Amino acid sequence: MKTAVKMFCLLAAMIFIVPAFAGQEPYKALVDEDTDVPGFYISPKLYQFTHPHTSYLNERFVSQTFPTRPELCCTPDTRAAGECPDQHPVLDALTSLTSKGNSGWYEWWIQVPKKPEGEMNLEIECGVLKPNETDILECAAETGEIVDPGCTRRAGSYLNPNALPTIEAIAYAGCQNNFDPFHLTAYKNPGPYTLARPILNSIQTLDGGPNARIALKGCMDKTVLVKWPKEGQVNLLGETETALRAGDIIKVRMNIPTANTVDVYCNKYSVKIGGIGEPLTILPDGVCPVVCFDHNGDGFCDTCPDVVVPYGVCD
User: Fold this and answer.
1) Each residue of 8-33: pLDDT tens digit?
2) Within a domain: residue 218?
3) What pTM did the predictor assign?
4) Cβ–Cβ < 8 Å for 61, 91
5) Residue 262, domain member (yes or no)
6) What contacts 304, CB < 8 A, 6 or more positions away?
7) How many domains does the chain divide into?
8) How many angstroms separate the CA atoms of 150 and 233, rounded?
9) 223 to each of 72, 153, 180, how far by Cα in Å?
10) pLDDT 10s digits, 197-226
């Protein structure tokens, strides 16, 4: 009898202890099936943290201009070897151009594959070249730079802040959560990384405004570190945050101003979300109903046209 009681207590203890040892692991998420990302856009070290069955129906890449341009981060040697992803139509790797002197926008809707346990990286990488140029080895550029003739930057010049892209990032509830959308908050990097008052020295709401500007170097990653959303915490816009779960949707929008001084080329693979999450919370695609959104601003849900609301679950 004593042995039976001991075994029962041991089993009960194991039941309560298991969640503490569930562990945490890195993840990488992109638009559409994460494991289908071409090797051109991700290293083997990072690819091992992508997951299959993550072709969620709410994920998409949309932009002001249609993606018809080549991937200009490919060098001539890469093309000669047949390794440039835009040479393979099935990879859907053509880019959308926003040229010098024109405004534009790009949006990536990405669902997190597992429950995040910590801050998230928004990793942005686009082709950025001098105006009307196509050779990244000769005419690479940085957003906001002052360009001189001959594929050179004006000597001693600084970036024009009014020409820099801005970032807006909003969290939407997936099928396992229920909350009003809220803007994500980023740490200023480098910065004090403190949420003590005055927090304005440490954080920035990703609201697409003039204080949410970023500078992109041609074909190089730009990482924006997003604060871990906490249940019930109110951001600087007065919106209430919620702890994210697997399947929740992150919309990343990059706005290019008319003062843009360079040519910017982005595609569906230009944004990745990286973080650390709970392994046992992985959400396979096809499990949840489609959440509807008004992506094009016409007042109707794109994925369920009969619903006349910008946000909700398709019936």
Assistant:
1) 333 333 333 344 456 999 999 999 99
2) yes
3) 0.88
4) no
5) yes
6) 290, 292, 314, 315
7) 2
8) 51
9) 21, 24, 26
10) 667 789 999 999 999 999 999 999 999 999
